[in-house]
Amino acid sequence: MMRSDRGCQAFGFRPGVIVAARTENRDAADVSLSAGDVIHTVNGQPIGTVSELRTALNALKPRSPVVLQIERDGAFSFMAFELN
Hints:
Elements: H1 4-10, E1 17-18, E2 38-42, E3 45-46, H2 50-58, E4 65-72, E5 75-82
Antiparallel strand pairs: 1-2, 2-3, 2-4, 4-5
């Protein structure tokens, strides 16, 4: 049986976590994520599940720099911010 991320790549998709919704949180960093964005990496670490995303972010200390590689409307870009 193939791992799901390899299956995704075979069809031209990259594993990632889809942003389902954005909620206002005054303690959250000012990050311009939108519903439908796909987070592919956190500080260069590949992200394929929500659990991996949480683990990567929880391992960081407050005020740590964070760089997300995201996909929006088929285009890839990076978002940098400081963790609150």
